[in-house]
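CORE FACILITY INTAKE
Project code: CF-77B
Contact: R.S. (postdoc)
Sample description: multi-component assembly, two entities in total
Requested service: structural model of the whole complex
Turnaround: standard
Below are the sequence entries exactly as provided by the requester. Do not edit them.
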Amino acid sequence: MKTSLLAVRAYTLSNSLGVGMSASLEGLREERSGLHPCELPNIDLNTWVGQVDGLDDVVLDQDLAQYNCRNNHLADLALQQDGFIDHVQQSIDKYGADRIGVFIGTSTSGIEETEKAYREMPPGAEEMPDWYRYRYTQNIYSIADFVRLRLGIEGPAMAISTACSSSAKVFASAYRYIQCGLIDAAVIGGVDTLCQTTLYGFNSLELVSPEPCRPWAADRNGISIGEAAGFALLERDATANSIHLLGYGESSDAYHMSTPHPEGEYAVMAMQQALSKAGMDPQDIDYINLHGTGTKSNDASEDKAIVSLFGTDIPCSSTKAWTGHTLGAAGITEALFSCLFLEHGFMPKSLNTEKQDPNLGANILLEHTARPIQAVMSNSFGFGGTNCSLIFGSLT
Amino acid sequence: MKPVFIEGIGISGPGIENWQQARSALLSEQPGFDQELIISADLSLPANERRRASRLSKIALQVAGEAINSSILQADEVATVFTSSCGDLEIAHKICTALTMEAKPVSPIQFHNSVHNAQAGYWAISQHAHNVSNSISACADSFAMGLLEALTLIEVEQVPVLLVACDRPAPVPLYNAGMSRYEFAVAMLISPHRSDSFMAVLEGDLVAKQSVDAAVNVCENKALEPLRKACPAAMALPLLEALAISGQHVISLDCPGQTCMQIKVDVCA
């Protein structure tokens, strides 16, 4: 008997596959990748990116104008999809605006505004340009504050910023707040947008692929970076068809700032904790959505972890070649993909992984597989050695 | 929320070297905030990481180490919450400066140090600590939300939590845009269980802002106010001031939206 930690009452996703849930579902089903050669202004790198179209055209409400930046534009656009705002309003009406919390993951928030200001300033300038608003753009909390104000929520709010596990960990924090009785519902999510800092930063570490990424392939050579936003409304009460958060696990590698533990020992710890929270055994999981970035060391480490805990039969795939690695939004993107797969009964293939690395043992899906599934694990790992595993499922 | 126990404290700031010395500095009319924060602790970092860690990470590790060392707990048995309004803006400054140059020579070390969880990563490496760790920001309310995050972890996961709050000023030209004028960091080791050496009992709750009568955020000692007002991590000062004096205290700290944290502490003599 599975027990729910929280019900996912409503959710929405926007990424390079398109804006709103149906764009993601159709993109995956029709095997259409969101990755394209990078043509962003001010970025001169030979790489592919997952870009969301139309972000420059977004206009924020007048009273939120000081939050103007690409990251908050993407949040604004994404919140307006799939009736998400209406669902949140129903929860506000039911519980009160101060009984809802906001937990948003991001890695770089609105740093693009600071990049812009530095490009514009004369060398040796002692002040930022007049238009620059640090607190409302680059500050890590800007995105959580923007979401809170945009939705009219008056409860506690925070940004979680643990690199590429940020928006997976929002589920665990929201659960704890609700469990402690501090709030009745939570808006959780993640938003990260393309900027020079991440593209040139990952490039400096020689982790960016010149081609679309190929997770688990023998000739994989790095990541493709993408931008995305995803939001979910979590409550205890479920509707008949709700997908539920069943388990979560969080751990630290304590190994290296930008390289995962080679044996994936603490990724295993996070996955085990998630199983234990859910009261499940490894064989109860039907499918794993891998962190699967497409770098040599990330995939090798995660493969060891998966094989040691689950063996080599469990179907796995990485969806990074569909959306790019969306960094601080990767956790929510893939968690909500997992909800989509549960809802629609299918497991996606690992795009671009034409031939699996013979040194890696996990069972990587090379074709879409349609069949009902009851429980999915989603993995997110990040710089600083931060690991988070989530389990979603139906209660039937 | 359920009562929890403060088992250790670490603190570094202008003219503040450690908790022992801070207890008198926090009550002084001339706390000496014109002095520099000094990093003197052995941070237990391997040589590579010691060379690479940013100043904010070293400050965070110094206070975290003091809090652990003043308790009977070991670093690998506690969870961690790192909270910082801004992270280390010196890194953002260096990266954004590099990005204005033709070749855009972003340093790989600066880039991996730029993540908001850099302090958590260095701490975990220095202590071989594998437990759950979170890194958050709530801008001006970062300390209060960090404490609340710690209390939820303690109550639900039944683990001791090391809470670390740290901020430092941004370099020019970001200085005036940033949120902090001082370097300040505090660590509190908080446990669901009482050891023989606990320092105080703490009970925190999230309440409606309008239900709070008492002054919110403010320090009793007015000499602390310039520091508190000019550094988000120093929003811990009203609580630290209470912890320096034995007996019962009630403190209120602002949280986002219409919420406020009410904290009752009973400090051992």
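Facility notes:
- Chain B touches chain A through 68 residues (CB under 8 Å).
- Chain B has a mean pLDDT of 96.
Invoice: internal transfer
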